[in-house]
Fold:
Amino acid sequence: MFWKTSRRTISLQQPLVMGILNVTPDSFSDGGTITIDNAVYRAGQLISDGADILDIGGESTRPGSSSVDVDEELRRTLPVVEAIAKQFDIPISIDTTKLAVAQAAIDGGAEIINDISGLRWDERLSKVAAMSGAGLVLTHSRGSFETMHSQLPVADILDELFKSLTDSVAIATQAGVSNEQIVLDVGIGFGKTFAQNLELLRRTDEIVTAFSPMPLLIGVSRKSFLGKLLSDRPVDERLGGSVASALVAIKKGAKIVRVHDVKETVDAVKVAGELGLF
Structure:
């Protein structure tokens, strides 16, 4: 299995770790890492820790966060993408739902578009991927940016996810995106209840089978459902839960895990693999 981007073909024979590099002042992870020098330094750390892909985002999607306009998101992300692309040979993903940001980032050295809306908010992102050959992550989410964390639950989250991701893939392929460019993400935390997040992780293998051969990406790192599961553990004390969830996802067939704590996740994946967990 492999993933085609605009700059390379990425092997998925072994599970990959996507390192999160947020350049948002309100991010719960890398908040305040706004200067180009700081961002490049942080990128170097993530690469040294074993990240296979860097995911750069300029708009926080945590509960309670506010949307930013296009100009501000470009100001935060584009110089960072360009600087990292010049200094490091690593696949760069731009985490955005905005057409102008996606296009500028791809032009500036990114090779993957990570769209948490699964093309629901702007189908034109698929055209950027089609024209450039960029990889495209299609995430299942519900509602708008402002309402996705306050959606009333659906009765059958797996059925909803299957239908929504099928629609997202159809939009992408109709625009000219090949299946080899597409990776799917179940969107843990985006419009799901606590119980539904757990259900999706438990049933990751069913999702992998349903959408085969398109690879699955799972992002559980530091998510609020882990805090609840661990007796209201604060964000900076969810490492163990994050790593455990990533290993479960890989065991059940996910090819990529998106994480904040790269070194610890890479170590865990290496040990688990050597011991025959997957």
User: Anything to note?
Assistant: The domain at 2-274 is CATH 3.20.20.20 (TIM Barrel). The chain is about 40% helix and 15% strand.
